[in-house]
Amino acid sequence: MIGLWLFLKSRRVVALLSVLMLIAVTSRALGSRSVLLGQEESVLFPWVLLLAPAASAYAVAGAVMSPFPLMELLAARGVAHVARLYLVATSTIALLLIWWAMKSVPPPLSAQSAIRGFLGLLGVSLVAIAMLGITVAWVVPCGMLFTAIVMLNGSQKFFLTDWIVGFDDDLVAMITAIILLLVGVSATWTRSFRLRNAAD
Amino acid sequence: MIGLNLELRRGPGVWMAPVLFLAGFLYVRSQLETTVLWSHTVTVVTGAPVLIGPIAAGVAAFTGARSRRRGTWQAERLSAGGVAGVALAEITALVLWAFAGYAALVAIMFATTAQRATWGGPAWLWTVTAGIGLSLHIPLGWGIGRLLPLRFTPFGVALILFALYVYVDNSVYQWWRRLSPAVAWVIGPFDEVVHLQLWGELSWYSGLAIAVFTVLAGTARARWRVIITLLAATTTPLALGLIMIGASGPSFATVTNRTVVWICEGESAQICVHPAFADSIPPLRRRLERVIYRLRDTPFAVRRAEHRPRGGPAGEPSIGAIPFGLSYPKAGNYDTAALELAVNALYFGPSCLQSDSEGPRPAGQDALMFLARWVADKPRSIMLPEEESDWAWLDSHSQADVARWMTAKAEKIRSCTLELSDFR
Q1: What is the mean pLDDT of residues B112-124?
Q2: By the 8 A CB rule, do B363 and B419 touch?
Q3: Which of A36, B18, B184, B256 is most buried (most C-beta within 10 Å)?
Q4: ipTM confidence score
């Protein structure tokens, strides 16, 4: 148990849960407040969808990084699989909180879109953090999210980012998000991810 | 100069500039409809900081937090230029790189437009003001990063700033929109940006940039003399900027048509457009002729359809002409132009166009809008069952029958008392 306790402490679990709660409560307070996007066919885009999935995904992806990667590699017991379990557990909590926060938001952009956005952006964040580190990797998910919103506002299609702003029933968007999540999870097995320091 | 040299060659600006250029290019790609109008190109390019500004601020926050996160900030005190020298080197290098990314975007878009444009010219002061607005993100982000040197600060800065700009972009009629360092304005070929407003913005941005150093000096317990000097240097341009923006009038741009000579086509019913839109006449004619055909032999017949700016005294058409708006050539805009012509031909008088804020909606507004949509053949994407049956009723009758019906209902249309039940 001491090992688990030390692991959770090293991953700042209390801070992460507080941040996820804060995001969820803020999102719940925002409710179905929306912003009008699009020139030809306007879409009421909920503020929650702009803020909650990206912030939660990056917080969860960042929290899994180790502040002592070299020491963990030398540990008698493998820490990497514990880190992956931690990722699954925190992702589940984040998903439940997003679902709770988005309950009052009506379709076509509701909790389903937010959950899909979270899963996809989590995958993107994990890959970006493995390559660039927490302090710089935000450029990738933020750049994708911002571009998706701008493209939606210009009523334009862009295959790299359309999945983030697709409607609830957009099957292609869901498949894309799941593929990105799988790519992101597989990045946790890479050397660059395991050697990356949380302070990078 | 050694610090600046090092930051320019090894700092995060080296990768930030291409990222900003790429993001800016994506923004331009999503918004640019044509390069035949300088006003449209400048509008789109100067709006790019809405997307690239938050990214620049995030990178600046990363840079500002860098020395504290790495535990090297104590060493800054040992540098020859002092703490302020290090900060200035980091900020200056990032500003130069951000401006370089923006300048590359401007150069490409302006070069493309210069080859194809048929109207107007580059608005240099506006373009530079938008670039300075982008540069302002650097000291702002850097200051936040220095005060909150956390791992997630750059991410938070970028996300919150972008959300703020989305909000500003949606607050079209708010005066404070003009204080934002990044705004996407929509300027047509009839419009002229008020220069006093741009000078005011430049002054406002300068004040905000100096304000960052004032806050930092305050938190670093600098000498009172330094803080008071910085406070004066902050408040003066801020106040001057606010005065100039206030004095520049209620709008970012003014409508002008002093030099416009219309290009007209047609005999019995003319279609007249701004000279920059000469190429738009064929697609526009297809849409407008439908309106002209459906309104002929009625009291609302169109003799001359005139392309006009929206709003203001210059929006008043020539005697006997019916105005329509068209910001830039695009299929969707032609459809909207046809609907505007139908609306104006049916004369939605002031009593019918009363907005929600001024009281309850006039009873006949919905029915009139429905009729205008039928005249322009532009139905709502989702129609009520009652509207669908009314649409079918209008379609099922000959043009002569509908013209007789509209003539009979002319008084109701003019007085904004038409109802959906009148369509039977």
Answers
A1: 87
A2: yes
A3: B184
A4: 0.92
- Per-residue pLDDT reduced to its tens digit, A154-193: 878 888 899 998 888 889 999 999 999 999 999 999 998 8
Determine the 3-state secondary structure of B148 from DSSP. Answer: coil
Lookup result for tokens 């043009």: B399
Cis peptide before A108 (omega within 30 of 0): yes
What is the side-by-side strand order in the sheet with B304-307? B263-265, B270-273, B304-307, B322-324
- Report field, pTM of the whole predicted structure over 0.90: no
Rounded Cα–Cα distance for residues A76 and A80 (Å): 12
Give the gap in angstroms from C-alpha B335 to the nearest C-alpha of chain A: 10
Interface of A with B (CB under 8 A): 35-37, 39-41, 47, 50-51, 54-55, 58-59, 62, 134-136, 138-139, 142-143, 145-147, 149-151, 153-156, 158, 198-199
Q: Which H or E run includes B128? A: helix B124-147
Give the residue ranges of DSSP H helices in chain A: 2-10, 13-30, 47-63, 69-74, 80-101, 111-132, 134-137, 139-153, 162-165, 171-187, 191-195
Distance from CA of A168 to the nearest CA of B (A): 19
Among B407, B373, B409, smallest CA distance to B391 is for B373
Instruction: Name the strand (E) or helix (H) holding B324.
Output: strand B322-324
